[in-house]
TrEMBL record, chains A, B:
The keyword Lipid biosynthesis does not apply. It comes from the Bacteria. Pfam families: Hydrolase. Transmembrane segments: none annotated. Keywords: Hydrolase. Belongs to the HAD-like hydrolase superfamily. S-2-haloalkanoic acid dehalogenase family. This is Haloacid dehalogenase type II. It comes from Epidermidibacterium keratini. GO terms for molecular function: hydrolase activity, acting on acid halide bonds, in C-halide compounds. The keyword Hydrolase applies. InterPro entries: 2-HAD, HAD-like_sf, HAD-SF_hydro_IA, HAD_sf, PGP-like_dom2, S-2-haloacid_dehalogenase.
Length: 232, 232
């Protein structure tokens, strides 16, 4: 397989394109000066995998905005913060306002000159479209787990990209800062590219961004991916 | 209902945002100088409503690209043109390359400063995203009948907009150059705005763009809609 000729690039978003930790920590620090904002952000995100698993098990679709709100209520309670329903709903939209990593917007724009470039996120469509508008990210379309009502790593989610664009799965490249996302994509027949985002969980909590043999395309950031793909 | 405060604008695309007739006639004239290109374009489009109706009746989803190809084969035969499979497939993509009306791109960009603006077309997602890229149209997301696998005027298609964006149907405005599309939207609880496109079927075949009482918001073009909505 020639890794230089995918037709469609499908991007994971949280952590890969946008800095969820820094964005949420900044907003929490503004609103609640007395809490450990970095820990609050990590606690909120920590509820994500269990929520996904629970939706997958139940077979009942719940969009990510609603899961985020459920998790938020628990985290607020754990941090002994009391906010009313309207404020919780407004705070929950911080996920629609996440800031991009410094290289993301420009590198995605460059990639769009050669490829069809879309998000493939568990975030719902309105979350992803608000985020794109706030951050100035241009996508060719907004794909989401919401379209197939199956969260990654369900193979149906990964395969929706090729189905929608009428290309074989082998011409779709999943781009993510998480090896498990890439594992799911590879199992569904997609190509993969890993993006290092060592500070995804905060500068005080650097994560292991070592390469793995099963995902040999490995880049420091999206700008480096763009240089690689556009050089051929 | 205050017509000045929708949250989401959902645009019909073929005829409303892009000039399907002029775009297709130009490409047909280039490829087949001996046929009546304007008639060819109208014949291709004339197959659309029967194809929609047949999909609705069968309950079996077929995306618009595939319907367009089936219709194209019949039209080529009617015009006694013989083209191979590869050329037919390539010609079928003319729908991905339709040119916008002169006011569309800029007016949609202006509307996006205040509203969430999306297409709501029977065109499939890849058709709409290729079209947006070719034409330079910026959308906040690409909605399509393909997401709900129901063609307009099925109420589920119109209602998908409010569901996806988490707003009541009454805060969604359908914008179209076709009264029957607006009828379907209104029946599903959406607001409506009519756009005149008198030359949708060609300058030699001007269509009736008279107002109808049930759709009192009536504009010469999308630029006029933008002036109206942004003035309040």
């Amino acid at each position: 397989m020639d890794e230089t000729t995918p037709k469609v690039l499908a991007f994971d978003v949280f952590g890969t394109v946008v800095d969820w930790h820094g964005s949420i920590a900044a907003e929490i620090a503004d609103r609640f000066p007395d809490v450990d904002a970095a820990e609050f952000a990590r606690a909120w995100r920590a509820g994500y995998q269990p929520a996904m698993a629970s939706v997958a098990q139940s077979g009942e679709w719940v969009r990510l905005d609603d899961l985020h709100l459920q998790i938020l209520r628990n985290v607020l309670s754990d941090f002994q913060l009391s906010v009313d329903e309207a404020e919780a709903a407004e705070l929950n939209l911080v996920w629609h306002r996440l800031r991009p990593w410094p290289d993301s917007v420009e590198a995605i724009a460059r990639l769009r000159t050669r490829f069809t470039v879309v998000p493939l996120s568990n975030g719902n469509i309105s979350l992803l479209s608000d985020m794109a508008k706030n951050a100035g990210i241009g996508w060719d379309a907004v794909l989401s787990a919401e379209i197939v009502r199956r969260y990654k790593p369900d193979p149906a989610t990964y395969r929706s990209v090729g189905e929608i664009f009428g290309v074989p799965d082998s011409e779709v490249m999943m781009v993510a800062a998480h090896h498990d996302d890439l594992d799911g994509a590879a199992a569904a027949g997609l190509r993969t590219a890993y993006i290092e985002r060592p500070n995804e969980y905060g500068e005080d909590r650097p994560k292991d961004v070592s390469g793995r043999a099963e995902h040999p395309l490995h880049f420091a950031d999206i700008a480096a991916l763009a240089r690689h793909l556009l050089a051929h």
